[in-house]
């Protein structure tokens, strides 16, 4: 069994843990969502920094403290999703790197780093995270389609070669075959890589991949607080996913 420990939480490829994104655009919204998530008690939270409406002037340390106050024991993943990969951040590579460097100096547990940026940016970001003891989730999002099998497998491998601690691939399926391919390649990547993986096919056609983690080996499945706060298409709500996971596991 492949495992990775983040503080008291053990992630493994047998039973996926559930992460709930915080998508608040303002400090007040973050506080409200964090308090709502506190009552749900998910395994992890993901703070989607790119949802902040005034990211330039945001006080990240202050906002993070608000999350920590509500969720003192819950591991926090920090994510800056760029517009190219389906998020809202559309600034340059240097600004991306500076933000990552700021985030890894704060009390987060894991950081999402998009590997399709220039290599020097990616490797500097990974080193910065590791120098402060933060685990890196290498991340690749394709919102238009599902690349061919070879490309998908190469993405997983690239993340391992870069020194990421977890390799994550998210795609948009155009049909059932794409979803099944993503599952098959995820399973293969999980068998062949030494690091754990996370994968999902987004949208309705891919929804099953959020549940079939014991087949794919994906160690985390993302679920929204409710249908109005999805951080990607096709997410189930936390209550729905937890119920299904409890039944099938
Ligand atoms: O990478 C992921 C997965 C995700 O895109 C999803 O499809 O659930 C949601 C994002 O918030 C997260 O960063």
Automatic annotation (TrEMBL):
EC numbers on record: 4.2.1.10
Matching InterPro entries: Aldolase_TIM, DHquinase_I, Type-I_3-dehydroquinase
Binding-site list for 3-dehydroquinate: 46-48, 81, 210, 231, 235
Record pathway: Metabolic intermediate biosynthesis; chorismate biosynthesis; chorismate from D-erythrose 4-phosphate and phosphoenolpyruvate: step 3/7
Keyword terms: Amino-acid biosynthesis, Aromatic amino acid biosynthesis, Lyase, Schiff base
Enzyme class: lyase
Catalytic residue positions: 141 (proton donor/acceptor), 168 (schiff-base intermediate with substrate)
Catalyzed reaction equations: 3-dehydroquinate = 3-dehydroshikimate + H2O
Molecular function via GO: 3-dehydroquinate dehydratase activity
Similarity annotation: Belongs to the type-I 3-dehydroquinase family.
Assembly: Homodimer.
Function as written in the Swiss-Prot or TrEMBL entry: Involved in the third step of the chorismate pathway, which leads to the biosynthesis of aromatic amino acids. Catalyzes the cis-dehydration of 3-dehydroquinate (DHQ) and introduces the first double bond of the aromatic ring to yield 3-dehydroshikimate.
Protein's name according to its UniProt entry: 3-dehydroquinate dehydratase
Annotated organism of origin: Nicoliella lavandulae
Gene: aroD
């Amino acid at each position: 069994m492949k495992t990775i420990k983040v503080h008291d939480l053990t992630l493994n490829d047998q039973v996926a843990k559930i992460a709930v994104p915080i998508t608040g655009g303002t400090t007040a919204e973050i506080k409200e969502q964090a308090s709502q998530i506190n009552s749900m008690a998910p395994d992890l939270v993901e703070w989607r920094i790119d949802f902040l409406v005034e990211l330039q002037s945001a006080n990240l340390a202050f906002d993070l403290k608000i999350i920590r106050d509500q969720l003192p024991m819950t591991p926090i993943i920090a994510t800056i999703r760029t517009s190219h990969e389906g998020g809202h951040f559309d600034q340059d590579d240097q600004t991306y790197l500076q933000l990552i460097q700021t985030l890894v100096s704060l009390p987060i547990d894991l950081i999402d780093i998009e590997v399709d940026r220039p290599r020097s940016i990616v490797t500097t970001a990974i080193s910065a995270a590791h120098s402060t003891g933060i685990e890196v989730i290498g991340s690749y999002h394709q919102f238009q389609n599902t690349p061919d099998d070879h490309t998908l497998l190469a993405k997983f491998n690239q993340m391992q070669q870069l020194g990421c601690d977890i390799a994550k691939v998210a795609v948009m399926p155009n049909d059932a075959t794409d979803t099944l391919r993503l599952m098959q390649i995820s399973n293969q990547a999980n068998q062949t890589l030494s690091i754990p993986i996370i994968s999902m096919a987004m949208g309705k056609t891919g929804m099953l991949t959020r549940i079939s983690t014991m087949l794919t080996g994906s160690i985390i499945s993302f679920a929204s607080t409710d249908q109005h706060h999805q951080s990607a298409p096709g997410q189930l709500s936390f209550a729905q996913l937890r119920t299904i996971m409890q039944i099938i596991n």
